[in-house]
Specification:
eight-stranded antiparallel beta sheet; about 350 residues; about 30% strand; mainly beta; globular; five-stranded antiparallel beta sheet
Length: about 350
């Protein structure tokens, strides 16, 4: 029934295009403040850092530079990254920001999440149905791992539409495809994004690979041919030009991971947002409101890690805060404190 579903979805989203003009009804979302004291929250990039013993500060990346808004009249704070959620060894490991997705649909708000790959360990968690493979974590973040959980976000298309493969825990679950956009996690848990066979190849140092379509950002630019999608490299589901909830992930020049999501996005506007957020290589992940979901976590009660809930990146994301804390049908990525 995939063809019939795609036809209906294409009709629905085309007939219910996002509004043109206007401003967000409730302004930009508020970021969840990081844990710890005010002095700890200011640690990264501050003079205070130099006064602490070097041994107490783990290696970490420089925070991201502000994103250049796509509108001529940005709202206060639009495109400004702020620390969000749990810190790692007292250092913010996640920053978030919000912005309008283009200069036409100015009542919509997209969000971005930057993650420090030196402070965070990334895990590909296999879902109950997708994409197949070992379910070591039972399709959820287990209670034992939740005290270290910092962030989580959705993975890619169902495997029969992903135009790529999966490798994890020493198993080629689905054959890997040369040239496919790939989120690759090494044995240390450090994640990156690139083209398989060019930027990465299978080696003993690789823990997991999740492929989805072709890169939508490469060499810091939206991929050539993306607007027309004549060769189908960016999938057939819904269609590239339809405005719908979309998500994507990329890597910036310093190795930081950047996730972007929002309503009313085409494949092209998603690529532009990932580029604006600093990605030099990026890939589309899942689309539609049921599957686009990202959370940060602030563990306030270590004695009861099962009680933790995620804070949505965007308030209109449809999944609840326990999306990755109970078994789910699709795979996802969990990011945990590495120190």
């Amino acid at each position: 029934m995939n063809g019939a579903v795609n036809t209906v979805e294409h009709w629905w989203y085309t007939s219910h295009a996002p509004a043109v003009g206007g401003k967000p009804k409730h302004g930009l979302p508020a970021q969840a403040a990081p844990d710890g004291s005010a002095s700890v929250r200011r640690l990264r990039g501050s003079v205070l850092a130099s006064t602490l013993a070097a041994a107490t500060i783990p290696p970490h990346l420089a925070p991201p530079a502000s994103l250049l808004p796509l509108v001529s009249d940005p709202l206060p704070g639009e495109g400004v990254w702020k620390p969000t959620g749990r810190t790692v060894a007292g250092i913010p490991a996640v920053y978030t920001t919000f912005f309008r997705p283009d200069a036409v649909h100015t009542s919509l708000v997209a969000g971005a999440m930057w993650m420090d790959t030196m402070l965070l360990r990334t895990v590909l968690v296999i879902g109950l149905q997708e994409p197949g493979g070992p379910q070591t974590w039972g399709a959820q973040v287990p209670i034992s791992a939740r005290p270290a959980l910092v962030a989580a976000f959705n993975s890619g298309f169902k495997i029969d539409a992903a135009l790529g493969g999966v490798y994890t825990e020493g198993q080629i679950v689905h054959p890997l495809v040369d040239g496919a956009a790939s989120l690759v996690i090494d044995k240390r848990g450090r994640a990156s994004v690139g083209a398989w066979g060019r930027d990465f190849q299978l080696s003993p140092d690789i823990a997991s690979v999740r492929q989805n379509l072709s890169l939508i950002v490469d060499n810091g630019q939206p991929a050539a041919g993306l607007p027309s999608n004549d060769n189908g490299a960016w999938g057939a589901t819904v269609g590239n030009k339809v405005f719908v909830w979309r998500s994507g992930v990329g890597v910036n020049r310093n190795g930081g991971l950047v996730y972007v999501a929002g309503p009313g996005l085409s494949a092209v506007t998603l690529a532009v947002l990932l580029q604006r957020a600093g990605a030099v290589r990026a890939m589309e992940l899942d689309i539609n409101s049921d599957w686009v979901s990202a959370f940060t976590f602030d563990q306030t009660d270590p004695a009861n890690p099962a009680a933790v809930l995620g804070a949505k990146l965007l308030p209109d994301m449809s999944r609840a805060g326990d999306r990755y804390l109970v078994p789910g049908e699709r795979d996802f990525f969990a990011l945990l404190a590495a120190h």
